[in-house]
Amino acid sequence: MHRRGEPGLEAPGATPDEQLAERARDGDRAAFEELVHRHADRLYAVILRFTASADEAEEATQEAFLRAWRSIGGFEGRSQFFTWLYRIGINEAKRRAQRGSTEPSTASVEQDRVQELPDSREGPQAHAELSDLRGELQAAVRALPFKYRAPLILRDVEGLSTAQAAEIMGLREAAFKSRLHRARLAVRRALDKDYPA
Amino acid sequence: MPGQRPVTVRDRIEHRWARRRLNDYVDGGLTARQRSRVERHAGICPECGPLQRALVELVQALSQFGALPERSVAPAVITRLRGEHGPHR
Predict the structure, then answer these.
(1) pTM, whole model, 2 decimals?
(2) Which of A43, A146, A157, B44 is the most buried (most CB within 10 A)?
(3) Measured between beta carbons, which residues in chain B are less than 8 angstroms from residue A118?
């Protein structure tokens, strides 16, 4: 895997996504294929955080683009193309997560404020420790129920703005922030459990 | 809350104010003045200080996860798309 660029930003001089989407709405398949080239890998990387395997993520990514192509007539340009596309992709990932039997319960994230107990690890040592905990961090994120994992992935991993991520989730910003905060606290608590201070 | 001296009403107000803004602090959603106010409180509060640092570390660590596949999935998507009819309008 290699690092991603900024979402929603075309190369200088490139045709904006929204113009390509408009042409795709008129049946221009090449315009839509250009959108696929721009967004498929990033969308795949997002969906991979919700699926059991790389194969399933690839299949879900294909399905998301098929749905987008079939319903491109419904894209009215009121939002950025990629947020509209991600919403379709996230819904596809959610469908698959719900079909599986391993979707975690929300109870562990929504329990009382015990999860807000402070972390006593501090300073450079904590940084080194956290980098060693990469695997545990990924596991902690995977253990989150979909409704909490998605905000964390979109905002903290993918680096989208709160407004973009909230739009993808179909949430008001305040509700999105609340979920994100709970997700962060739950992940931190999970790490504390495995590696007590 | 500050632990080494008596906790005042002002301390409680600051604690509640800062705690509600820790997430926005981490996300860079505060003005410079608000950031300073959070930092001032976190510097003396045994609850908010560690929580603030832990959240900053966590978000930094999560930002390192974002990566794209070595092999692009776009060709497979396009192959599937080419088997489809045009968009519904």
Answers:
(1) 0.80
(2) A43
(3) 46-51, 54
